[in-house]
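testing teh design pipeline on a random one, pls ignore if ur not involved
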């Protein structure tokens, strides 16, 4: 991230009661905002964390991890973090690039030979490159159905991706593509000689102190109960865990297979805030960090909240905090987004300081976009920041 001195927030709000359990320093307004969401049956509970590059500013638990059992949220409550796995997958790819073992401009077929025969809908050779599979612009088909559920390893999924018809010509558009991110995870295995979970454990989780982050559930780490709001009754109802994630006989899927705690994931975020380092150890080079935080999708519209259902929220939305409630936004002003792929940070919102003062940079003024926010929201200009693509040694 380019301006690590500014605040960033990590808010995990998955799972209905009103007690608050104080766990660390607290910023005003955040707990009240979470309590309001609980009162409206939007969530059952939350763990919220705010960090700078070198300091914990806020850690607060609210509500319950399991309503029926009256199990309160704690800092070590384990969540399925779903697509928050993707930035970690992108980080793993860039770590290998820093070592000269691959390049994001390389053909995917260099590491997964079966891709050499992949054809586009028009019958042309696909010639996919790593950047395309990381940025959801590959058009790669998805692995679905019984065969995908039988897969034990990431290698088992490769022929299923290749057998599925491609969805569109590579680079033609942006479409959320789970198979692409999992292909990146498989490439990490091929290049490193380690399973994807072992690579992350050795290279990221252990060094960063992410002691509860894992692909595989154990009885010692009880998982939070997820809830969905019943549209008819307005009540929260428990949702069973996704069967394709968690068991030991399932692949370590880079698209959304990880479980983690809020403090654990905050450590990963702090490493990014520090420009790829944490506590004296470097994980990503400055060039890799610049690539990680630079849009790679050109002028393609990205994101899937730009419709009437979602109130046209999040134009070019990526991984990050989207602003949300005014009470929270007063303290946690968003300034940067990192794309779901981990290398595609989408359009950047105007940078705002914690006190609300705006900071603009010259390159932002040149490329302003008009706001597209719902009525009643604070109107903020969105800008696109583009940087030249950094050269990487190959």
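output:
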């Amino acid at each position: 991230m380019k301006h690590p001195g500014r605040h960033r927030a990590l808010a995990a709000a998955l799972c209905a009661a009103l007690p608050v359990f104080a766990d660390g320093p607290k910023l005003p307004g955040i707990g009240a905002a979470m309590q309001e969401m609980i009162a409206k049956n939007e969530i059952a509970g939350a763990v919220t964390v705010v960090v700078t590059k070198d300091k914990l500013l806020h850690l607060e638990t609210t509500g319950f991890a399991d309503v029926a059992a009256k199990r309160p949220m704690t800092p070590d409550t384990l969540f399925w973090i779903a697509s928050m796995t993707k930035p970690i997958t992108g980080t793993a790819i860039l770590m290998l690039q820093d070592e000269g073992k691959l390049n994001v401009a390389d053909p995917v077929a260099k590491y997964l030979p079966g891709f050499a025969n992949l054809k586009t809908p028009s019958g042309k050779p696909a010639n996919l490159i790593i950047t395309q599979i990381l940025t959801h612009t590959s058009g790669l088909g998805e692995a679905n159905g019984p065969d995908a559920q039988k897969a034990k390893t990431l290698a088992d999924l490769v022929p299923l991706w290749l057998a599925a018809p491609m969805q569109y010509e590579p680079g033609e558009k942006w479409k959320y593509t789970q198979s692409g991110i999992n292909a990146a995870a498989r490439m990490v295995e091929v290049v490193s000689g380690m399973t994807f979970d072992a690579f992350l454990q050795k290279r990221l989780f252990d060094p960063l102190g992410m002691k509860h982050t894992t692909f595989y559930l154990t009885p010692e780490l009880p998982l939070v109960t997820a809830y969905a709001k019943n549209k008819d009754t307005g009540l929260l109802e428990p949702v069973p865990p996704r069967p394709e994630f968690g068991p030991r006989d399932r692949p370590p899927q880079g698209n959304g297979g990880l479980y983690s705690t809020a403090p654990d994931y905050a450590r990963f975020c702090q490493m990014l805030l520090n420009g790829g380092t944490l506590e004296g150890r470097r994980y990503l080079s400055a060039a890799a960090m610049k690539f990680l935080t630079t849009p790679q999708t050109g002028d393609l519209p990205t994101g899937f909240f730009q419709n009437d259902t979602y109130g046209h929220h999040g134009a070019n939305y990526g991984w990050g905090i989207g602003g949300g409630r005014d009470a929270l936004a007063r303290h946690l002003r968003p300034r940067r987004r990192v794309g779901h792929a981990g290398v595609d940070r989408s359009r950047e919102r105007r940078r705002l300081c914690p006190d609300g003062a705006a900071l603009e940079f010259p390159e932002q003024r040149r490329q302003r976009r008009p706001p597209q926010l719902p009525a009643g929201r604070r109107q903020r200009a969105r800008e696109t920041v583009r940087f030249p693509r950094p050269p990487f040694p190959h």
